[in-house]
Amino acid sequence: MFKPKNLFRALPAFLLLAVCATVTYAQSPKKPEDNRFTKVVLAQGVEEPMQFQILKDGRVIYAERKGKIKLYDPKTNKITVIAEFAVSTKYVNKKGEVSEGEDGMQGIILDPDYETNHWIYVYYAPAGDVAKNTLERYTWLGKDILRNTKKTVLDVPTQREECCHVGGGMLFDKDKNLYLSTGDNTFSRASDGFTPLDERPGMSPEDSQKSSGNTNDLRGKILRIHPEANGTYTIPQGNLFAPGTPQTKPEIYTMGNRNPWRLTIDSKTGWLYWGEVGPDGSKDDFDKRGPQSYDEFNQAKKPGNYGWPYFVGDNKAYRKYDFATHQSGDFFDALKPENHSPNNTGMIALPPATPAFIWYAKGLSDKFPLMETGGNSAVGGPIFRAADFKGAKRPFPDYYEGKWLITDWVRGWVNVVEIGEDGTYKSMERFLPELRLRGPIDMKFGPDGDLYVLEYGNGYFKNNPEAELIRIEFNGGNRKPQVQARADKSAGALPLKVALSSAGTKDFDDDDVLTYQWTVTKAGKPFKTFKEQNPSVTFTTSGVYKATLTVTDLKGAKNSTSLTIKAGNEPPVVAVTVTQGNSSFFFPGKTIAYKINVSDKEDGRLSNKRIPASLVSVSANYLSEGYNMTAIAQKQQGVDATARFAAGMALIAKSDCKSCHAVKDKVLGPSFIAVAQKYKNNPSAVATLSNKIKTGGSGIWGHAEMPAHPALTNNELGSIVRYIMSLGTPQKTQKSMPVTGTYVTAVPKGENDNGSYILRAAYTDKGTATAAALTTENLLVLRGSLLSPSQANDAKDMDYNRDSTIVVVKKPGAYLEFNKIDLTDIRNVELKLLPRGRGTDPPATVEIRQGSADGKVVGSFTGSFVGLNSLKVPISGADGKQDLYLVFAGTQVRLNGVKFNIE
């Protein structure tokens, strides 16, 4: 294709204007909307799944680590076992101690000509006294694998004294060459999170120079062979070492790998890509050891050495280190690496090291910020090429052409990497930001164009209930309506009139005309049907009813959702009010007076004692996490006697903690209960463990290295630790408070004093003869009196910084608005400012108004803000609880907090 600039050179100057008016350039494909993708769960209850392949008819064959090969059939939605291998998963060290490891059934793949030869390959660690991993070929005709057809293709000798790193990924290229990834088979947790180079006698299981850095060993490599019909293999041309090269293995395509995962080949360029799991260190130590840990995503345009165990990331070099004397030597040279280990059986001089394509540590990466922070385990994923899916039902759109979809086992995101035509990294973006996978361990496109993901679940070496096989479908045409169904009442006494609403229902394809149908049933039997968008229905008989809204678009695509209505019993009404003090904020050490009101149509009222006070549950709990964490806590489990720990539970649920820890059982790290018991008499446990989580490290519970979590705030760290510590002793049931009384809002010792107090009241009624009992609870949240700009409910003409902790006034009339602020007893509103230094800025004005931006002024200040850290604006004439506006005239104000003071 010619380039426009060459055309311009060939034309006379007077024609250039005409050409410029007519030449057009191809537009980049538009990014598809997230709502065009649908997650479909295919199979649940998969047990330690490892690798899978999709057949042309949609069946999925996958390997489980404990030795089973299983088949999922979409026609029946059933999983069947087609083979079970005796596998080795244990390690026995020199002391005779037995531990669980990563070995077992690791990989499975079908031959490229499976439709005619029916060959299937498996890679696993066979049970027995011989330490090895083996690649075997069998015949599979669609039911059980025929074990008597076994052909041993390749053996990889290993050691079984110490865990870990097996690799096991397999892939065929267009020339029917088989790629097999192998791990370095090295115990690295005795290396303080750095590279394992232990050359002491008898310590070869802790020296990766015997494998990854050894040109004469098959471990820590990506191998490339060509399987032959008789069960043997030949060596393709172009591997790293030509056959016959002394002290080398000709099968090696890449070396210097630690634990390469999930190979993929770009079908257009032929380049190889994979994920590479790094070590565990969270800090650099260039004085003695070298760089911290980095996981990698790698690209091989040709055979090469990828550096491990001498380099990591973009060729960050480790130092030679003597594990006997603890003395450090020189940094290794990436251009001329050498392997002088006594455990090396290969060449001393190694090929130059190739830097990683993408690399990221435990902390935030400046170069690749979308990788997030915390524990990491690079997996890899497929590169999309539309030419691979001609005639497919649901191929991904052209926007993803040539892009690499990658995932991380711990962090659970999927990122899309754009690669230049010359193979250079260009950019990265998040794929479906709301999607969070749970232990994604293999990911590839299926024949219909869908993206399949095998999720191992959270936690090593166990059957995780959340493990599943899913696929993500793209809908490039007409989409189903998104249906919302609501009712103004979910329960009530007879006769119960309920207004049903379809508000919020929408269709993303604008030309569609929607039709609505409400179907109301009782015990599965029809009760009423409506063809209106928002009908009303009256129930005269007690019972539980289901109202289902079905919405159909003009092209026949339909979608439904349901809600439940309980008729025959009016829910209780519970109110929590502050009778003395401020109803928006708490002030440490101050007393508030409160009152609970309960009324129930059938049971009576608390005020006339028909409802006994003893049946009303009342509690107050302090959340050091503050107001923003309250919503998380409530979503997690409701606010009750354990509310103090709910936010910690929520943070653990959305972090990488479950990858290495469980509540009761030891995984890679200790159980939470064991941690709580170890530190239960330690008065500084919260501070000690918070720092441990933040900075990472090892040594307390053995060699296992805990990754750093630098992005967690001190409040979040404290929440996690306090929840863990709560597991050490049984929690006492909190005694209910009186329904009317006073409460001193004391802050627990050592906790943040700007959290939230939550007053909760709940009542369960008696039900009726024909309807079950109903519970109503109500909450009153008193938050800390210091608000961040990020907590404003609205803003006008204000510039926020990246994390919304600072705002700057852009022009006069700018404001911040906070919803429903009670100014009772508030003497002044204190503005926390960032000083502007010295200067002669003209005076500025700030007004505090109630109700609206031009509402009643209850406080104001006019003057210079230069050099001020804070400014207290007196409050007078305020009218209770209203929306509050801070209105600014003048542009020199920089604000990072608003505090409400009673003194």
UniProtKB/TrEMBL annotation:
Could you list this entry's UniProt keywords, alphabetically sorted.
Electron transport, Heme, Iron, Metal-binding, Signal, Transport
* InterPro entries xref list: 6-blade_b-propeller_TolB-like, Cyt_c-like_dom, Cyt_c-like_dom_sf, Cyt_c_ID, Glc/Sorbosone_DH, Ig-like_fold, PKD/Chitinase_dom, PKD_dom
What SMART domains does the annotation carry?
Answer: PKD
Signal peptide as annotated in the record: 1-26
Q: Residues that bind heme c, according to the entry?
A: 657, 661, 706
GO MF annotations, alphabetized:
electron transfer activity; heme binding; iron ion binding
Entry comment on modification after translation: Binds 1 heme c group covalently per subunit.
What are the residue boundaries of the Cytochrome c domain, all occurrences included?
643-728
Residue ranges of the region described as Disordered: 190-217
Q: Boundaries of each PKD domain copy?
A: 481-565
Question: What PANTHER family would the database entry show?
Answer: ALDOSE SUGAR DEHYDROGENASE YLII, HEDGEHOG-INTERACTING PROTEIN
Put simply, this protein is called: Carbohydrate-binding protein
